Predict the 3D structure of the following.
Amino acid sequence: MEEQIYFKETSKQARRPDDRPGKKVEREVSPFCRTMISKTVDQLKLADHSLVLEIGFKSREYLPFLFQKVIGIGYYGNNISETVVLGAMSAPALKINEGTAQFSLAKEDGTLAIGNNFFDGCFTVNTIYFWKDPVAHLKEIYRVLRPGGKLSLAFMEKNIGIELPWTRSDFTFYDTNEVKTFFSKAGFVAVEVKQMTEEITGQNVKGIVRPFVNVVGRK
């Protein structure tokens, strides 16, 4: 029961955090998402002064981890929740390893107000379930990446996601081969897939190991 409640809250955060006025806007990222994020970022193998886009950022909480990896990261995060974006923008500026952070409100259709060939890398975690047209979203990410830039995407496979009782509506899960096909249709090459796991530890849930998939494609 505790596990179900815990992951139900995680799913709400992944999809669209509460936008109601008066809600706390800076919230802790669950241990589940935090581990997926760190492993997903690692696959980009970023260089100093890279420009990085995150689709559907969860919080500023894990940005120090990103900024400490290399010098001078230029981070751009978007989210469809105005609450999350405003909360991130109103917090004090992060000053770590010369890194900078910008935040913007995402559009439901995935279009990005950025010119072509801008980012060195992009990562996104637990967002593909909510994209009405995954190929269209991936094509837009492909457009804003520089030649040679990488997208690192993490998700739970269909056989795991559909078994969770709180994902019966509003979630669309995919098999790994389906996601690889989406990448190819969007133009990505050298697509690599890695099966990963994470151990979740938190106040209500401890010692749970969950598998997830990471897919990386290059422009």
Remarks:
- Residues 2-17+27-218 form a domain with the Rossmann fold fold (CATH 3.40.50.150).
- The chain has a mean pLDDT of 84.
